[in-house]
Fold this protein.
Amino acid sequence: MYKVLIIITLSLSMKIATAEDELSFKKQAEIKVNIFMKALKKELKAGLKKGLVNGVEHCNVNVSKISTMTKDDKWKIGRTSHKLRNQKNSPEKWMLSYLDDYKKNKKKDSSVVKLGKNHFFYLKPLYVGGVCLGCHGKKIAPKVSKKIKDLYPEDQAEGFGLGDFRGFVWAEYKE
Ligand code: HEC
């Protein structure tokens, strides 16, 4: 009888512990992703002030700088998509079904994925807004398009419409 009780108590407390881990991971991930996105938006704004062509260069140079800024030995931040501009942002294999799901169902909520003990991913969906169209839309100015193709010969991240799912900002925690 006692044994059973102990086992039940143990497994209950273990369950609670993982739920709390996930919750605290999610909270921290949200903060980090917000910092990352704010910094990205600031860069984009600064670049766009000098025109779209310049904006492309800003994204290109500074995204990696921002990613290292928010990185420590346990955390990593990045972006990915089902239609990539930069191959370096390629999704991990397990992310493909998530990309598919968000693309089809246009889910607004973020997902937390547990890959192992103390190994979590946070996926925040990005949807195309007006400001994105100049570089990811259906009608991209020839000068901008040329700049993009020069920097990203394998670019697939054009042809998006307003409100389309564009990809994820992700945060990874691994101990
Ligand atoms: C001034 C041009 C420009 C604008 C405007 C722009 N992007 Fe991008 N976007 C880029 C470039 C350049 C890259 C490649 C960055 C890199 O090298 O990692 C990129 C990459 C991305 C990626 C990473 C995945 C990939 O395809 O490599 C996502 C996600 C993304 N953009 C979403 C957006 C969203 C959402 C908006 C609107 C809020 C937006 N972009 C606005 C130029 C732009």
